[in-house]
Amino acid sequence: MRKSLMRGALRGLPILAGLLMLSGCDAVLFDPKGPIGESEKSLILTATYLMLVVVIPVIFMTLWFAWRYRDTKQSKATYTPNWAHSTKIEIVVWGIPCLIILALGILTWKSTHELDPRAEIVDGGEPIEVQVVSMDWKWLFIYPEQGIATVNELAMPVDRQVRFHITSDTVMNSFFVPQLGSQIYAMAGMENRLHLIGSEVGTYDGISASYSGAGFADMHFKAHVMSEGDFDAWIEKARGSSKVLDDAGLAALKEPSEDVAPTFYGQVKPNLYEQIMAPYMDGMELGMSDDQMRHMKKGGMHHDSAEDGMSDHDASGHAESAMATEE
């Protein structure tokens, strides 16, 4: 009796472990706070329900067959050792999966285009530009229109879309705010674009979703979705910082560091984002001459582009257009 109870307890351990793991999970993907996250949640659930159309009957039939065709005198199943084919069964076991695959294919095709991260969100308002740089092991956020930058802290107004320009100054990484949606890669010398909206005021976790070395576990940030007034106050708070993100500040940020506290920079060198990308690219990719590219790699684009007949605005716009074309 004791041995039987022990065997039963051991069999129950995996189930108990699974329940404990599920109870400890924070299912943020199923608690979205933006339209992109809502659409992705709907896509996950729809795909799951379609697959359960096959999974649930298979589980049921496995148990039912084991009972009906058990080796016992009480079994009423017909014994047909030479049975080999049934057209009805073939239609069911091939037809239903084919219909499910067709439905999933159509759903995937439509949702892939509807949720294109580079496409602006309809009725999202005028987008706020944020340049995102993955570093060892921290996230740099540059607000070019506001002239400020932050490390490991992001802010955005509620119900207004943000256009993220995402790159890396180190190994490939992945930018992800689970409750807002759309994980997307950050790669050196390349730019990915992402549009997101936060539809509810709050603070949400942002993470690195791709292993990138020793400090990966602490490479996270807070994404604050706030009212327009609070966002303006947050910008003014950042502008009040005495820190300047220039060449020296950027060199300090490039040094590997772990578990970095949020930091504000009240001033940012113009075209710093393009300067960060430049060492990984050549002049043809950025649409610049060799001389302009050399100046940019040295950190002198702001001053020298005008000397070469190109204003700062034209230079950054030209580079942005070239990068968008490359995508």
Radius of gyration: 27 Å
How many runs of DSSP E, i.e. beta strands?
A: 13
Number of helices: 10
- Biggest β-sheet description: 6 strands, mixed
Shape assignment: elongated
**Mean pLDDT level:** 82
Which structural category fits the helices and strands?
alpha+beta
Measured distance between first and last alpha carbons: 68 Å
Q: What fraction strand?
A: 15-25%
Fraction of residues in helix: 40-55%
Strand order of the largest sheet: 8-5-1-2-3-12
Query: SSE order, as H and E?
Result: HHHEEEEEEEEEEHEHEEHHHHH
Unreliable parts? 1-24, 300-327
Protein name: Ubiquinol oxidase subunit 2
Keywords: Cell membrane, Electron transport, Lipoprotein, Membrane, Oxidoreductase, Palmitate, Respiratory chain, Signal, Transmembrane, Transmembrane helix, Transport
Family: Belongs to the cytochrome c oxidase subunit 2 family.
Membrane topology: Multi-pass membrane protein
In summary, what is this structure?
It comes from Cobetia amphilecti. With 327 residues, the chain is α+β, with helices and mostly antiparallel strands.
Structure description:
- Helices cover 44% and strands 19% of the residues.
- It has ten helices and 13 strands.
- It has helices at residues 2-24, 35-68, 87-114, 228-239, 247-254, 272-277, 283-286, 290-297, 301-307, 312-326, and strands at residues 128-135, 138-143, 148-151, 153-157, 162-168, 173-176, 184-186, 192-196, 202-208, 220-226, 244-245, 263-265, 267-268.
- The relative contact order is 0.11.
- Residues 1-24 and 300-327 have low confidence and may be disordered.
